[in-house]
Amino acid sequence: MNKQETGKKGEDMAVDYLAKEGYDILDRNYLKRQGEIDIIAFDPKFKEIVFVEVKTRKDSKFGYPEEFVSNRKIEKIETTGNIWLDENNKIDTFWRIDIIAIELDYNPPKIEHLKNITQEDES
Asked: Where are the alpha helices (DSSP H) in the chain?
């Protein structure tokens, strides 16, 4: 399985996971000049739009999937997310950025959902 196939498999697994958790999937692979968002979903529990970055690894030999999301990537998601909010007339809607980290070397694959990764530490 090449890198693109691994990424697509991970995104499909993340969509299935989010749907089972009660999220509504609004968009996938939303692409703008400023960046791409893997999944855009709605969390009915918190009434928030969720911009989801999916990171999938065949194994953790070179690090855990979530470690590959840079601050620059988060900034691009935020910028691109604001465009999506504007285009969909949801500019006043609460939103957050989540990471779904998937490790395929487990059976079943290990899925970790890190919510609101940009939340400021209030300590």
From this structure: 3-20, 71-87
Question: Do residues 111 and 14 lie in contact, with contact meaning Cβ atoms separated by under 8 Å?
Answer: yes
Q: The whole model's pTM is what? A: 0.92
Specify which residues 31 forms β-bridges with.
Answer: 36
The domain defined by 3-114 carries CATH number 1.10.3720.10: no
Q: Mapping DSSP to helix (H, G, I), strand (E, B) and coil, where does residue 30 land?
A: strand
Secondary structure class of 101 (helix, strand, coil): strand
The one-digit pLDDT tens for each residue of the chain (123 residues) are: 788 888 899 999 999 999 999 999 999 999 999 999 999 999 999 999 999 999 998 877 777 788 888 899 999 999 999 999 999 999 999 999 999 999 999 899 999 999 999 865 444
